[in-house]
Write a structure and sequence with these properties.
Length: 84
């Protein structure tokens, strides 16, 4: 099973963007890879020309809003907010 295959996406500064698709087509997987919660099995994730591999989620210039609350019990309130 391949959730995301051969994707190239360019979003310009100040541009509005929506990611739409059927359930199970890879939208959440793509966002989770950008945020650093998942690693691709092949290929690279480039953001503004920077390869994001090896950069931990809390150091990436990406934020993700979860559909349901996802608090990390081992982290402080401040760290939970900073993480998101």
């Amino acid at each position: 099973f391949t959730a995301v295959n051969n994707l190239s996406l360019t979003i310009f500064e100040r541009e509005f963007f929506a990611l739409l698709g059927a359930s199970g087509c890879g939208k959440s997987t793509l966002l989770r890879m950008l945020a650093g919660f998942e690693e691709p099995t092949a290929g690279r994730i480039l953001l503004d020309g920077q390869d994001l591999r090896g950069i931990p989620p809390y150091r990436r210039p990406v934020n993700m809003m979860f559909q349901s609350y996802a608090l990390f019990p081992h982290m402080t309130v401040e760290n939970n907010i900073a993480f998101g």
